[in-house]
Amino acid sequence: MLVDRNRHEAVVIGGGPAGSSCAVWLAHLGFAPILIEAGSRIGGLCRLHSFRDDWNASLPGVTGPQVADNLEVSLAHAKVPLLLSHTVTGVEPTGDGFAVAVSGVRDVVLRAPYVVLATGVTARGLPGTNIAAPKAEDSSVRQGSASGTHGAVLIGPGEHIVAKDFRDKRVAVLGGGDNAFENALYAMRHGASSVDLYARTVRAQRQFVRQVPVAHVHAGKYRVDAAAQAVNGNHYDVIMVFYGWEPIVDYAAGLKLRRTARGYVATDAVTAQTSCAGVYAIGEVAQRQHPCVVTALADGVVAAKAIQASIEQNGS
Ligand SMILES: Cc1cc2nc3c(=O)[nH]c(=O)nc-3n(C[C@H](O)[C@H](O)[C@H](O)COP(=O)(O)OP(=O)(O)OC[C@H]3O[C@@H](n4cnc5c(N)ncnc54)[C@H](O)[C@@H]3O)c2cc1C
Fold first, then answer.
1. Most buried residue, 15, 42, 157, 163, by CB count within 10 Å?
2. Same topology for domains 10-120+248-314 and 123-241, yes or no?
């Protein structure tokens, strides 16, 4: 009998906490998943920030990259096959499941009756421009080089901020949430000659807000001219944009998935199944709970158990 090497029991897309957890649980439950990750390492957003992960009550003092390393170890222990540095470009229904188009070192189409979307979010760009956040597969950004940072305009948090030299720079920060204030403080502490923060409304935690001098926080409407690197007519060497997040789900457009009012992938509350039977969405791409590592891990378990129940019910 001919064995179809590209057929799996489940294809998990995205190797952050949600996708890693789901793949590990599927393997432990006795199924044969494959995990596809666009970046060269497992870990998702955890890999990109070096802060201590004090949100996780069971891992005091552990940093984001250490959490990412632990996910890698768990996947290795569970013997989950990984396709790293490969990006999913399309998911289409077939007669007996789904075809998942993957692009990378080698282009391939995988087939499976179950697909799990765990691709997380990307920072929203600056309206009216095509400047976007760095992508996971842009390894130069992950390794801290300055390329891929879109010159003077930086979108969202991450290693491209750490790679930037703020010394003697005039910096404008756009946004009123925690990320905006935390990164404004980062630029202040890394030698910026001045940091002005522009926010329609200030929503950040007080612990961050009170550290930025009031005279440099401009609340209310403001005008951005990205080409001139100006805000309200003032020129800046660097403009950092923190306009929140949006789900990475364009590759699944062919499935016509239902979305929530906030644009995330809508799912069944109990099973994490999307509006397309056999397709599950977990972690930040669905934002079913407060976004963090613990809820992403839990979501992975929920989807794995729901897939197990479905397989056992359908006898396939
Ligand atoms: C600055 C910062 C600090 C944070 N600090 C903490 C903290 O201390 N504690 C905590 O609990 N949470 C923290 N978080 C939040 C936490 O990192 C996220 O909630 C968590 O990583 C979400 O997991 P996820 O698996 O849903 O998505 P992600 O971690 O974003 O993983 C998604 C993965 O999918 C991959 N992917 C995307 N598109 C494709 C594609 N087409 N094909 C293949 N792969 C793809 C991406 O490369 C990525 O690896 C922080 C977040 C940020 C931004």
1. 15
2. yes
How does strand 10-13 pair with strand 33-36? parallel
Q: What are 90-135's pLDDT values in tens digits?
A: 999 998 999 999 999 889 999 999 999 999 999 999 998 888 887 7
| Those residues with Cβ within 8 angstroms of residue 70's Cβ, 6 or more apart along the chain or in another chain | 62
pLDDT-above-90 percentage for the chain: 79
How far is residue 61's CA from residue 68's CA, in Å, rounded to a whole number? 14
How far apart are the CA of 130 and the centre of ligand 1, in A? Answer: 23
Q: Which atom of ligand 1 is nearest to the CA of 137?
A: 47
Ligand 1 pocket (Cβ < 6 Å) reads 13-19, 36-39, 44-46, 49, 51, 53, 55-56, 64, 87-88, 118-120, 136, 157, 248, 251, 283-284, 291-294, 296
Second-level CATH architecture of 123-241? 3-Layer(bba) Sandwich (3.50)
- Which CATH topology does 10-120+248-314 take? FAD/NAD(P)-binding domain (3.50.50)
Report the chain's terminal Cα–Cα distance, integer Å: 18
Q: Is pLDDT at 142 greater than 60 in this prediction?
A: no
Phi, psi of 315, deg, nearest 5: 65, 25
Instruction: Report the residue among 246, 285, 292 best suited for mutation to probe ligand 1: largest number of ligand atoms under 8 A from its CB.
Output: 292
CA dihedral angle for residue 196, residue 201, residue 207, residue 209, rounded to 10 degrees: 20
Residue of the CA atom closest to atom 19 of ligand 1: 292
From start to end of the chain, where are the E strands?
Answer: 10-13, 33-36, 82-83, 87-94, 97-103, 108-112, 114-117, 121-123, 153-155, 170-174, 194-199, 217-219, 224-225, 230-231, 234-235, 238-241, 245-247, 279-281
36-87 pLDDT, tens digit per residue, is: 999 999 999 998 877 677 788 999 889 999 999 999 999 999 999 999 999 9
Question: What is the value of pTM for the model shown?
Answer: 0.88
